[in-house]
Amino acid sequence: MRAAVFVGPGEPLRIETVADPAPQANELVLKVKACGICGSDLHISEMDSPMGGMAPLHRGDIMGHEFSGEVVAIGKDTQGWQVGDRACALPYLACGQCAQCRSGHGYRCINVIYTGLGRLHGGYAEYVRVGAPETVRLPAGVGFQPGALVEPLAVALHAVERARIGNGDSVLIVGGGPIGLGVALWCRFFGARRVVVSDLKAGRLDKAAAMGATDGIDASQEDVIGRFKQIAGGRPDIVFDCVGVPGSQQLAINYAPTDGRIIVVGLCMHPDTILPVKAMTKELTISYCTMYRRHDFEMTLEMLDMGRIDPMAMVTGAVGFDDFPAAFEALRQPADQCKVLLEPDA
Q1: How far apart are CA 336 and CA 341, in angstroms?
Q2: Helix 294-306, helix 150-163: angle, nearest 10
Q3: What is the spatial distance between Cα 205 and Cα 198, in angstroms, rounded to a whole number?
Q4: 329: closest CA among 2, 18, 67, 10?
Q5: Which of 215, 188, 218 is nearest to 203 (CA)?
Q6: Nearest in space to 69 (alpha carbons), one of 140, 144, 154, 131
Q7: Which residues pair with 129 in a beta bridge?
Q8: Where in the chain is the domain with CATH 3.90.180.10?
Q9: Would you state the pLDDT for residue 335?
Q10: 153-288: CATH number
Q11: Cα(249)–Cα(271) distance, rounded to whole angstroms?
Q12: What is the full per-residue pLDDT of the chain (346 aa) written as tens digits?
C-alpha cells in the first residue's frame, strides 16, 4: 500500500510503498477514505527525544489518528462486522479487561498501543489496522469526511463535558483551530449564551461563526478581555485554552474571573511558566483533559446523523498522496487553513 512515512524530525513526510496490515484475532483493517492532519502530529514529528511521556517517532512510522473508511479484512475472532461496513475508530488498542477499559477509559489502559505513534501504523495510508472493540459504525447519514472529524470533535466534546456548561454561561475560547472550533460547536450545543473565539488569525473567525460562535475577537488587533467585556458585559464564566503553546495557559488565567473555570485542551509540548498567585487569588478551577471515551464518539456520530451539528466549516482542504507532504508542512506555519484531510483515493 501507499503511505506517508515519517523520515526524521524536521524532514517532510515521504510517500512510499509499504506492506499492507493484517488483522489480529479481534481486529479489523479499514481502507482509509479520509484522514485528518492533527496538530499533535505536527508536534510529534518535530521531536528528537522523549517529551512529556511521549517517545519520538522512528524512521518508517506512519502517523494519522483521525480517520474513517471501509472494512476490508476481519480478524478470526471478530463478530458483527462485514466487509464493506463503513466505520471510524478510537485510535488505540487496549486490553478491554482492566478497570480503566471497563470504565470507558481505554486510553488509560496500562497496555494501550496508540495508533499513529510508532508500533501501530496510522491512517496516513491506504489501509489501517484497528481494534474491533474500538471501532464504531458510521450511520447512513454520515459521510467519510465528517467521519474523519469524529475524533477531534470527540476531543472537544470531552473538554466541554468537563466544563459543566450551564444555560446562560459565557465562554471564551482561546484559539480558533480545529479543537477550538469543535469546542465552540459543543458549547453552543449545550446552551452557552455567549461563545466567543479569539485568534491571532482573523480569517479563522468566519469559520468560528459557522461552527456556533456568537462572536469573534481578532487577538492581533484587539484587547481580548476588554473586547469580551464589551460583548458579554463581564469576564467569561469559562475559559478554554485551545492553543497549547507556552504562555497560553497564563493568558487563560489572566482572562478568567474570580471563581472562574479554565479548561486546558491545547497540547503544549514545551516547558511553560505560569504565575500561580494569580490563579490562587482568583480561586480558579483549572482542569486538564485529553482524549475521549467511546461514548463521545457515539454521541458525536448520532448528532451528525441527526443533523444537529455540522462541523464541515472547519475543513479547508482535501488532498491525495502526491500533495500530502506539502500540505502537512504548510500547516506548521500559522495560516487561515484549519482541517486538511488526506483522501488516499484522490
Answers
A1: 15
A2: 110
A3: 8
A4: 10
A5: 218
A6: 144
A7: 29
A8: 2-149+311-342
A9: 79
A10: 3.40.50.720
A11: 12
A12: 999 999 999 899 999 999 999 999 999 999 999 999 999 999 999 988 887 777 899 999 999 999 999 999 999 999 999 999 999 999 999 998 899 998 889 999 999 999 999 889 999 999 999 999 999 999 999 999 999 999 999 999 999 999 999 888 999 999 999 999 999 999 999 999 999 999 998 888 999 999 999 999 999 999 999 999 999 999 999 999 999 999 999 999 999 999 999 999 998 888 899 999 999 999 999 999 999 999 999 999 999 999 999 999 999 999 999 999 999 999 998 778 899 999 999 8
Burial class (CB in 10 A: 0-12, 13-18, 19+), 116: buried
Q: What does the alpha-carbon distance between residue 214 and residue 203 come to, in Å, rounded to a whole number?
A: 16
- The per-residue pLDDT for 61 is 97
Q: At 34, is the secondary structure helix, strand, or coil?
A: strand
Pick the CATH number of 2-149+311-342 from 3.40.50.720, 3.30.1490.100, 3.90.180.10, 2.40.50.1020: 3.90.180.10
One-letter amino acid for residue 279 of the chain: A
DSSP assignment of 192-236 = -SEEEEEES-TTHHHHHHHTT-SEEEETTTS-HHHHHHHHHSS--
The set of residues, in sequence order, having a beta carbon less than 8 Å from that of 258 and lying 6+ positions away, is 282, 283
Closest CA to 30 of 105, 77, 80, 81: 81
For residues 201 and 335, the answer to whether their CB atoms sit within 8 Å is yes
Q: Where in the chain is the domain with CATH 3.40.50.720?
A: 153-288
Residue 22's pLDDT is 97
Among residues 132, 151, 142, 147, the alpha carbon closest in space to that of 69 is found at 147
Closest listed residue to residue 2, CA positions, set 118, 129, 125:
125
